[in-house]
Design a protein that fits this description.
358 residues, 11 helices, globular, 20% strand, alpha+beta, 40% helix, single chain
Length: 358
């Protein structure tokens, strides 16, 4: 049981401390930003730390236009039920949701649905069968299914496919500290995305309220005395004050270590947008970034999607609704597993959670 009075006191103390810290440090961050905002990438070439690359000056902002053109877009998202030792089965469920919208001059249509996949260990790809299913493996499989479904959607020739999350596969670790089976999943991801590129299907990912620190990292490079402060802020914190409404930043090319393993056409690029009062991060592959016409369409479509979704791309919002596994869905899955498998059995701990004695 939660001690609400004690928690309320602690929340007040935490937020007062945070407020004081922000008051003491944020002006320093903005001043430091203004000192580098006209800088170009060549001014940072001597940096000992990996930094994103860009062309022109950092404050070369571009207005985003919402022209509501005719186009077709698919949002793809995934959800899951993780393996749980308290049920006696090493099984995971992955549910891929999709939301397609065809916007015409006089008529628009929608295509909504989801595709569930159940995994037991024997259903895993051969390289993964030596270990029990874990949450990390389930997450990696979900991403693999999202990309695979996008490839199937590509046959319908949409103007854009959009994912939730990053195209920089941080969850696979670094080359020095890879996650389990990182090589297998990285090859699978890049193989599928390469086929999307060969099909000439533009794709991108959108991150709401991003926590990236590419720009604050640039401040730390030029003002090392502020390094400890810089990493207490995100790019979005800075951009909320300097990026005008309905504008985007320059395009950046990621130099995250894992991206060195990507084929050139898939090397991740990104920009930030300020649409509907929120800073969002849009990531896309090199073959999109290097085609001015395709890139312009991408930003136009995403601006339109964010406007339609009142702050978040409507295709992603609806694909999430299709993918999400709610509690009644979860109970349905557990009931069916219990009916089909003699191994299904609630642990004593789980039974106590469901039926506490006191």
């Amino acid at each position: 049981m939660l001690d609400r009075l004690l928690l309320e006191q602690k929340i007040a103390k935490v937020f007062q401390t945070e407020k004081t810290w922000v008051q003491d440090t944020f002006d320093q961050m903005l001043t430091a930003w203004y000192s580098i905002q006209s800088a170009c990438y060549e001014d940072f070439r001597d940096s000992q730390h990996p930094i994103a690359q860009w062309i022109g000056s950092l404050n070369n902002f571009t207005q985003c236009t919402d022209t509501n053109p005719p186009y077709t877009i698919y949002g793809i998202d995934g959800s899951q039920i993780y393996p749980d030792r308290h049920f006696g089965l090493n099984i995971a469920l992955i549910n891929i949701g999709y939301a397609g919208f065809v916007y015409g001059n006089t008529k628009s249509t929608a295509d909504l649905g989801s595709v569930p996949t159940l995994y037991a260990r024997q259903d895993l790809p051969t390289p993964l069968q030596a270990e029990l299913l874990s949450e990390g493996t389930t997450d990696a499989l979900r991403t693999m299914h999202e990309f695979a479904y996008a490839l199937a959607i590509a046959e319908r020739n949409p103007d854009l496919i959009i994912f939730d999350g990053s195209l920089i596969f941080w969850h696979l670790g670094t080359p020095d500290h890879p996650a389990p089976h990182a090589d297998y999943f990285l090859k699978a991801y890049l193989s599928t995305l390469s086929q999307l590129a060969e099909h000439n299907t533009p794709f991108a990912s959108y991150i709401s309220s991003p926590k990236s620190r590419d720009l604050t990292g640039l401040i730390a490079v030029k003002h090392p005395q502020l390094a400890s402060i810089c990493y207490g802020y995100t790019d979005a914190d800075i951009l909320q004050h300097i990026l005008p409404k309905n504008n985007s930043t320059p395009v950046f090319r990621s130099t995250a270590p894992i991206t060195a393993q990507y084929p050139e056409q898939l090397r991740p690029h990104f920009l930030y947008l300020n649409i509907e009062g929120e800073i969002g991060r849009l990531e896309f592959p090199a073959f999109v970034a290097q085609n001015d016409k395709t890139l312009q369409k991408l930003v136009t479509y995403i601006t339109n999607q964010i406007t339609k979704g009142k702050g978040y791309p409507i295709a992603l919002a609806e694909s999430h609704e299709q993918a999400v596994i709610r509690e009644h869905d979860r109970q349905f899955v557990l009931q069916r597993l219990a009916k089909q498998s003699t191994q299904f059995q609630y642990s004593k701990k789980q039974l106590h959670k469901q039926h506490p004695i006191i």
